[in-house]
Specification:
The protein is mainly alpha-helical. Helix content is about 45%, strand content about 5%. The longest helix is centred in the N-terminal third of the chain and has 46 residues. The protein starts with a helix and ends with a helix.
Length: about 400
């Protein structure tokens, strides 16, 4: 081989090696960026699941376990979920972690106690489980051996869980409801899954299973009463707007209604306050859709369905201007209580106003049109609600068909 050819061959090899090194470096950087994104997502999801509250003992290291969980059958100490290989989950695989989340079975193949809310976490996707696992594995390992089981006999025997699981555990990833909006489905995923709201806000029977026919109607936990989260107008969230619910979840304060205290204050601090406004709005949308239940109403009558829907829609779209009791603001927003146009024998006027809005008149602020925001049934429900509330005694005879006819004109 001539000297010139040899030099060219060596130069080509050198450039090829340099290009390969650059390519490998770029791939490594991309992989590192992708992993960092997964870890960051896992951190967010771990906050949505409020993992730190149960897996951190008082004055203990975050996620190192030892927090006491009292039950009617004794108590449990939450395990260490830092990546320590001997006392935490450092030797776990992503598959084993997903099995714990999805099936409620630990690394040793044992049924887990439902104090770990796997009955809710089963709904999360494999991708979200892997992200949470990646985040936990990124934490500083903490050596802290925890003796978990302090339940009374026979509940301290894991075989007892076989019967409980058969009665109260339905394994399965969340499946979106095609009939609902993406926002509703996102809210359902968070509330029913990672947020596990029903775990505290639903009564339980003697075996610790949730009474499904009373889900979200409120329950006593650790000496505190977790509030009714249904759309019940009297004892639940029926009189709250979606924005008020989202603000309450974010800040722990609902002006004019209540503030958080007890365990819920910790949930807001460690979990909900860190969620995005979009996710909180989605949770509010889902919570507002939970049907009312009369079990805790002390004899008060349950509003019929269309009135309930109308009240919720009014609070979301109308109460900001016309006020909660339909009293309006003098000279700015007209009252709806006792308003002749509202209680007229024919509801056409109010339906047309909701559809098309009103221009400004004098000092009165213009009313926006809702034709593009609300469907025919929603507009009819609002009309019927305002025609029968705050002393108004008109007949609730608005219908979706009537709205559709007016919309066409």
């Amino acid at each position: 081989m001539s000297t010139g050819i040899l030099r060219k061959w060596r130069g080509a090899r050198l450039w090829g090696g340099l290009l390969a090194a650059v390519a490998l470096g770029a791939l490594s950087q991309a992989a590192g960026a992708d992993q960092a994104a997964v870890v960051a997502r896992g951190a967010y999801l771990a906050q949505a699941g409020d993992c730190i509250s149960c897996h951190t003992a008082k004055d203990g290291q975050p996620f190192a376990g030892g927090y006491r969980l009292d039950t009617p059958f004794g108590y449990l100490l939450a395990p260490n979920i830092t990546p320590d290989k001997e006392t935490g989950i450092g030797s776990w695989t992503a598959d084993e972690f997903y099995r714990a989340m999805h099936e409620g079975v630990n690394k040793r193949g044992q049924d887990m106690y439902p104090a770990m809310p796997y009955t809710f976490y089963t709904r999360i996707t494999r991708a979200d489980s892997d992200a949470i696992f990646a985040y936990l594995q990124s934490l500083k390992p903490v050596r802290n051996a925890v003796e978990i089981n302090h339940l009374h006999f026979p509940f301290n025997q894991r075989w007892c869980m076989a019967v409980w699981r058969e009665l109260y555990f339905n394994e399965g990833t969340f499946k979106p409801d095609a009939a609902q909006s993406p926002q509703w489905n996102r809210g359902a995923y968070l509330v029913e899954g990672l947020g596990h709201c029903s775990a505290c806000h639903s009564p339980r029977n003697a075996l610790g299973g949730i009474e499904q026919n009373r889900a979200y109607t409120g329950a006593t936990i650790d000496g505190w009463f977790a509030l009714n989260l249904t759309s019940n107008l009297h004892t639940g969230l029926g009189a709250w707007s979606e924005q008020e619910i989202a603000t309450y979840l974010k800040t722990g304060v609902a002006p004019g209604k209540t503030t958080v205290f007890g365990p819920m204050a910790e949930v807001v601090q460690n979990s909900l306050s860190h969620l995005s406004d979009a996710d909180l709005a989605a949770m509010a949308t889902y919570l507002k859709s939970i049907p009312p239940n009369s079990s805790l109403r002390a004899g008060a009558a349950v509003p019929e369905a269309s009135q309930q829907r109308g009240a919720s829609l009014y609070l979301d779209h109308c109460a900001g201007c016309h006020q909660a009791k339909g009293r309006g603001i003098p000279g700015v927003f007209p009252p709806l209580a006792g308003n002749g146009a509202v209680i007229a024998p024919d509801p056409a006027n109010i339906l047309k106003v909701i559809l098309a809005g009103l221009p400004p008149r004098g000092n009165f602020i213009p009313m926006p049109a809702f034709a593009s925001q609300l469907n025919d049934q929603q507009i009819a429900d609002i009309a019927n609600y305002v025609r029968t509330s705050w002393g108004n005694t008109a007949v609730p005879d608005s219908s979706a068909a009537q709205v559709a006819k007016l919309r066409g004109k």
